[in-house]
Amino acid sequence: MAELLLVGVTHYPPFAWRDEDMAGILRGILKDPGIPAEAKDPAGWPERMRAEWGADEARSSAAAHRQHLVTGFDRAREAIEDFAPDFLLVWGDDQYENFKEDLIPPYALLAYDDLEAEPWAHARFPNVWGEEADAKVKVRGRPDAARWLAGQLLTDGIDVAYAYKPLHHPSLAHAFLNTVLFLDYHRVGFPWPMVCMPINCYGSKVISARGAFVPFGRQVEPDPPAPSPRRLMDVGGAVARHLADSPWRVALVASSSWSHAFLTDHLWRLRPDTPADRRLYDALATSDFATWENTSLAEVDHAGQQELLNWFTLMGAARELGRTPDWSTFVETWCFNSNKVFALWS
Ligand SMILES: [Fe+2]
Question: Which residues surround ligand 1, an ion (CB under 5 A)?
């Protein structure tokens, strides 16, 4: 009988940047002419946001945020090392990276062979490790396991798409590649194969806003929606059910930050919707699955929690297995774009 470990982490790109660049997203948002000057004035911000912003646009407070994330990743890494999985199955978003106008699957299984990625080939900022633009990272695949799981899901009424090679991205979308880089923050190696299961988290913004955002106030034609939270919980439950019957030890990993400031139009895109995140975090910590099941896609989108759909899938797996988390932590922030959560169900 298989064993499953459930893990929740983030793939927050600025964690890979230097401290002085970590608030780069907020600094960019502050240049958007569609956002009123009064909203941009730190004098009107919540006190804790002003404290994090400080006198140097959050350059010095980045160190504390980084330390919280290093601690979270260390704990997740330790749990994975102790568990010694045959592979990781990772849920992450594809932000107009591998899937574009010619195909947007609601979710898919990537049955890729081993591949080599160049994380910094198109980097916006220098990376915190000082690695060169042509640095390469090898990621091992488990195409046999991905093919097997696709077959199980399709037989079970979960109509998953699958692929044997990348479509538009030369390797892995950032949600997956950053998960590798961050679980190996101390650069000791990443020995585990990965099966990637991208989810169309961005839904109505996946093509129209290139899986991110357009200048505030610009009207774009919305794309069809993401899969519903409820459906993704069922998908995650089915993945857990079939893998629990497989010959393998698997770590099921949801990789994403929670509410994203750049998606919270009701907060002028300046900070994450922390009350919305806290509501779901409390429900996670107490295994209150009903609160997750009854959260609508409209609520998710309003709160800028598009990427949290990855975690709905993970919560569906926890529900299926009847698990409660043995550890979780909520990393709150105001200036570093998104709240982050780490969680383990062993
Ligand atoms: Fe993402």
Answer: 93, 175
Q: How far is the CA of 10 from the centre of ligand 1 (A)?
A: 9
Ligand 1 centroid from CA 334, angstroms: 18
3-state SS, residue 340: strand
Q: How far apart are CA 209 and CA 104, in angstroms?
A: 14
- Please say whether the beta carbons of 95 and 199 come within 8 A: no
Q: Which domains does the chain have, with CATH numbers?
A: 3-345 (3.40.830.10)
Going residue by residue through the chain (346 aa), what tens digit of pLDDT does each one get? 589 999 999 999 999 999 999 999 999 999 999 999 999 999 999 999 999 999 999 999 999 999 999 999 999 999 999 999 999 999 999 999 999 999 999 999 999 999 999 999 999 899 999 999 999 999 999 999 999 999 999 999 999 999 999 999 999 999 999 999 999 999 999 999 999 999 999 999 999 999 999 999 999 999 999 999 999 999 999 999 999 999 999 999 999 999 999 999 999 999 999 999 999 999 999 999 999 999 999 999 999 999 999 999 999 999 999 999 999 999 999 999 999 999 999 9
C-alpha angle 231-236-237 in degrees, rounded to nearest 5: 95
- Please check whether residue 83 is in contact with residue 251, taking contact to mean a CB–CB distance below 8 angstroms: yes
Distance from Cα 167 to the centre of ligand 1, integer Å: 18
Query: Dihedrals φ, ψ of 28, to 5°?
Result: -70, -45
CA of 110 to the centre of ligand 1 (A): 17
What is the whole-number distance in angstroms between the Cα of residue 11 and the centre of ligand 1?
7
pTM above 0.85, yes or no: yes
Span from the CA of 174 to the centroid of ligand 1 (angstroms) = 7
Cα 25 to ligand 1 centre (Å): 13
Q: Name the helix (H) or strand (E) containing 67.
A: helix 62-83
CA of 43 to the centre of ligand 1 (A): 30
Ligand 1: centre distance to CA 150 (Å) = 23
- Please report, as a single letter, which amino acid is at residue 135: A
CA of 119 to the centre of ligand 1 (A): 15
